[in-house]
Please model this.
Amino acid sequence: MTKYNALYAQSGGVTAVINSTACGLIETARKHTDKIGKVFAARNGIIGALTEDLIDTTLESDADIAALRHTPAGAFGSCRHKLGSMEKHRAQYERLMEVFSAHNIRYFFYNGGGDSQDTAYKVSKLGETMGYPITCIGIPKTIDNDLPFTDNSPGFGSVAKYVAVSIREAGLDVASMCLTSTKVFIMEVMGRHAGWIAAASGLAAEREGDAPHIILFPEIAFDPEAFLKKVQESVKKFGHCAIVVSEGVRNQDGSFISESGLVDAFGHKQLGGVAPVIAKLIKNNLGYKYHWALADYLQRSARHIASKTDVEQAYALGKAAVELALAGKTAVMPIIVREPGETYRWSIGEAQLEKVANVEVSMPRHYITKDGFGITDACRKYLSPLIGGEDYPPYRNGLPCYVTLKNVAVAKKLEKSFEV
Amino acid sequence: MTKYNALYAQSGGVTAVINSTACGLIETARKHTDKIGKVFAARNGIIGALTEDLIDTTLESDADIAALRHTPAGAFGSCRHKLGSMEKHRAQYERLMEVFSAHNIRYFFYNGGGDSQDTAYKVSKLGETMGYPITCIGIPKTIDNDLPFTDNSPGFGSVAKYVAVSIREAGLDVASMCLTSTKVFIMEVMGRHAGWIAAASGLAAEREGDAPHIILFPEIAFDPEAFLKKVQESVKKFGHCAIVVSEGVRNQDGSFISESGLVDAFGHKQLGGVAPVIAKLIKNNLGYKYHWALADYLQRSARHIASKTDVEQAYALGKAAVELALAGKTAVMPIIVREPGETYRWSIGEAQLEKVANVEVSMPRHYITKDGFGITDACRKYLSPLIGGEDYPPYRNGLPCYVTLKNVAVAKKLEKSFEV
Model:
């Protein structure tokens, strides 16, 4: 059997566990050197593939590859670059084929969200459309949790845990001080299109009075009156109010609240930051002292508090990607399957890339309470297992030991360079 | 020997480990029931003492008191209320004496920062000034790390660890994506008057190129030109730039940068948030895509990533407070003493409250690099052991189990109420 090389690329916004997928993939490939030659990684995602900027992962020690499992962010670099249609951007696909061919690559593993699965699907068709035989496996990853078929998207569970832990802690802080100090605390979380991350914060509210007292979702048009009434009720009842707001919350007219409030000294709109707008609204109408936090990248890189379930699933999907390829599958994506039953158990299944590409799954309305400010039991039941378990990285000198790979470039073989 | 009761009160901004001090104090007192009667806690700090709103901690189980060690924020409530001078606010001191007397309290433990040590000192003088015999022990606590005599202030080490871990993680995220996405990341941290917390983030930069690349300290007047040059250098050299900025950074004229930039839709100045101002400055001058985070209360309540050293020291100080009281000491504060030698070892010492009160320790200039944007080896040597070790709380359902005490009120004995 002729041995072909593999190319692995990370795509889109990185997560706390995407490297755990890389770890699963590379460790599994290393067990099958009879069938898979070298695993290359594209530097900075698909851009590295197009510019023939490949990394030779065989030069990394087993220990360093193992350390990927507990290292956040993208060890090989990622990018935001979507390949266009085959018709309009044929040159890109031809270039990919040239790079693959020059480096004897016949396995392509693309680790990303919806857009990336679309790209993976297009690449998988290089065989029929351009006559280049390629095994192409998409691997899911996105904190947005909006991929279809899979029970959840790797990366989401760890953000979910981070926001739930953070609002529980900050909520206790505010509760301690509310008599004479801050009465309202607002934490802004990611989720431009869907409220999954905001919803996850609701897991912290296990008993009446627990933070968060209010969650603002992108799915629910913001109603200032109802919101202010709810804030006031919470302050009257519990002395304080802890609020989680999704960056994607919109006004009734569909515009983002984050774009409605602040201008800088030059009169330009200040982008980003719905929390200060909400804070100001409360201050102006109810007069409460407030504080707000914007977790931003801290939430998606927080490997120190990653969900063990998430880490394990991310690893398993990387492993499964290699196994699917070796089983002769192509144009598929391994997925997490939730087994029936009260106890959370999961296994690995697969989905056709054709059906995955460009489909976004939104949060069901029945996961949000009737008043629009909280999560339902159904939502809790779905989300709770995803934050289950802790998986701490090793520490040295009080800091987590994250690995930096050598990332040695593979010698280029093509004469032409390529402008992306 | 007649047994007297004790009163414990938490004061000022809460921390991830102030309850560890409460735990050390109550557990130690419970071992000396032959000498100390009940330990009461003042609800919401000194306000509870003034309004006779006391909590009977003897009604809490040993397990719940033990759980205080891993629970952030103030379990009995805290407040920002400074007792004025004995001359001008005599009524408050008389009231305290009445409450103490009514509840047979002759031990007063006040757990707070500089202001609180001043209060503790004043209370300690009730004996001579008002003829009420009281043993008064101050216990240090403040994330600001500005108390004199003690090697560090409990609460600081855990914030320090949080910011160092967070910037390491977010820095990796930005590094992964910088080719096509965010090039500059800014994390705003607490520290209105001193740069200790900002400095601690510098521990994450162990090798060249590590985040943070720039730290902005309150101690160094902000020089936009030098700063922008440094940002540009970092982006050119490493592809990105991770910045930590203290909320207390000031312009050359001494004004806070956080107050200089943003106005809301009504033209009012937007308080808080130096990070967006810095971000905008970079965007306007260098054009780099940016993201920013504001950790706010998340940083001081982050018990999930507390420093083990901090937790142990906080506990030891609570224990020592009781031991000092039993040894007949008064008007003192137990402190952390750093032992000489290369390996960090510490013991408990004591300082006179009279000398502690209202003295603020600022960060030495030689802890900041010459260019004003980083920390020196001397600073690193001082800070590093303070974030040493992890001390994870127990988890249930993926979330840390923090205790909520019963906090049963002690029946009031005084007829008069008291307005604070």
Observations:
- Chain A has a mean pLDDT of 94.
- DSSP finds 14 helices and 13 strands in chain A.
